[in-house]
Amino acid sequence: MTTEAADSTDAVGTVAPAADPGFLQRHGGTIEYVLIPGAALVGALAVFGIFVAMFGKNPLDLYFYMYYGAFGTWFSWQNTLTRAAPLILTALCTALPAQLGMVIIGGEGALLIGALSATSAALALQGLPPLVVQIAMVCAGAIGGGLWIMLSGGLRQYRGVNETISSLLLVYIALAILNHLVEGLMRDPASLNKPSTREIGAANMIGSIPGTDVHWGLAFGLIAAIASYILIYHTVFGFAARVAGGNIRAAKIVGLGVDKLILTVCFLAGGAAGLAGMVEVAAVQGRTNANLAAGYGFTGILVAFLARQNPLAIIPVAILLGGISASGGLLQRRLGLPDASVLVLQGIIFVFVLASDALYGRIGFLKGKS
Amino acid sequence: MADGSIGLWTVPLAVLGGAIRVSTPFLFVSLGECITERAGRINLGLEGTLVVGAMSAYGISYLTGSPWLGVLAAGITGALLGALHAGICSLPRVNDVAVGIALMLFGTGLAFYLGKPLIEPTAPRLPAIDFGWWSDIPQVRAALRINVLFLIGVVLAPILYWAFRTTRWGLLIRTAGESSDAARAMGHSVLLIRLRATMAGGFLAGIGGSFLSLFYPGSWNEGLSSGQGITAVALVIFARWDPLLCLWASLAFGGAAALGPALQSVGITSGYHLFNAAPYILTLAIMIITCSPKRTLTGAPAELSITR
Description:
The complex is a heterodimer of chains A (370) and B (308).
Chain A: H1 2-15, H2 23-53, H3 59-72, H4 74-98, H5 107-124, H6 130-159, H7 163-183, H8 217-234, H9 236-246, H10 248-253, H11 258-285, H12 296-306, H13 311-326, H14 328-335, H15 341-355
Helix pairs in contact in A: 2-3, 2-15, 3-4, 3-13, 3-14, 4-8, 4-11, 4-12, 4-13, 5-6, 5-7, 5-11, 5-12, 6-7, 6-11, 8-9, 8-11, 8-13, 9-11, 12-13, 12-15
Chain B: H1 10-38, H2 46-64, H3 67-89, H4 96-115, E1 128-130, H5 138-143, E2 145-147, H6 148-166, H7 168-178, H8 180-185, H9 190-214, H10 228-238, H11 243-265, H12 272-276, H13 278-290
Antiparallel strand pairs in B: 1-2
Helix pairs in contact in B: 1-6, 1-9, 1-10, 1-11, 2-3, 2-4, 2-9, 2-10, 3-4, 3-9, 6-7, 6-11, 10-11, 10-13, 11-13
């Protein structure tokens, strides 16, 4: 350790002699949090390029179309942002419990239950002013999703059931409930090929941000991410949550109500994912059906890990991964790649990001901070 | 009786047949996960391994015409995914649960990508042995058409039980799972033991996947596995890391999973999706009953991250 520290001071001197010598000392840690995930991303893209090249496609075309389909035009930007909105919200479903040291991967389930609750609220309140219906949908979606993930948190806290496994099992149960209701009790008799609920009504849709085709769900996502950041890093509640996540025994000794913390954080996390379901219903689908299980919940897990569970970092990462999935259609049309190629790339990115955890504190010239 | 109409008896028979037929993937994945977790690591990526195994078995069976080569290929790809999991986990400060989630997504994506051209063609399936020859009732005969892989799994469970208790390898795996310091003190590399245990687990999970595509349901499509892998991982927890209990639990799960199709066959279609979710509800219920926040589970390997 001491020799490495000596190396790093040398490195500071050689790499940035002209700059403020204290700069790396103060910001080395922050730079690390950008540099290492960035390097992991580049590595993953390189491996994906090799993978695609094995199937006779030109990797340079691949990168070009990915960029073009994600950020190349105003149209693709709008597509990207539309996909980023639910990703921000589902990523919060993993990132918030992570502050308490919990690994929740059931965002997809909370999204489905949120969508179902929001649709039920809208169908029950038909005829009321749209604003009332919309507010009711937001509340129903958030509460439905919140209770769903709170179930995982409660099971862990009161019964010792592993929250990772229970939240994933709840995804499959949520999907079964959704299919059951959509094909039975809540089915619109007019939906023949694709069983769906009745439409919530065009007036109750939340619409687009003026001047764009991006729906208001993006604003929901941004607000939720910023609010989560403030909650975790600038409130007593967030401080207590981080203490409990760091050392649960210490938290109990100083008298923190750990049970309540865990249940509240899980409720907020599930609420965010439930809101994503509400947004998908009220801004995209207009009704609930099996289309909602589009994998936003699972990509959200990746977003949270890539953002290192930081709610503010989730925003750019969600836009990046929204861009990758937005470019999927173009890759399919221009390069003839299967639609699963986006999944493969996401998987490779995930693997690289986790492997890159080993690099923190080991990059010589960034180690000025000690 | 002779005309084959046996009324509601169809349901228990179909559940019994399902317990035998549907349980095989659960059995292989849970036995594999049992080996991995006994060595002190959890691999949630077996869900992905199952799908990759199913895809590669179908592909190889289609290309070579031999379903048994397909089974072997599924095992090998499973072991490779296991090696990837173990390799990443052996880096410092890498969380095995998170790597498992990553490999779950990666495996599913890879299988869908490579399996795209395999949805159309028909590959040779695994043969079944007819144990129901003595009966005239078609439902009984259907229930007793048993695949060889199931029999291998049934034999494997007691062998593993015995191997964990008495062989040198079993002892090494358990030592790595109970106390990595002790294993290190004995001069063994914990990382190497876990690498081998994870590869063995992946091998078995891959074979479980081959059963899905080559016997039951017996085709390759993207909806082939929906959570069987993760259910099997949970199953190991309440089977108390005991291969013999894994066998009984898998049979119970197979029966639960067969309930939906069985009821549908006698005309009870309402609640079809809910009955299909029976294995997940059963898993959750059993975990709620058997887990406790106050004590660690009996039989849990001490090094396992999820039980600490």
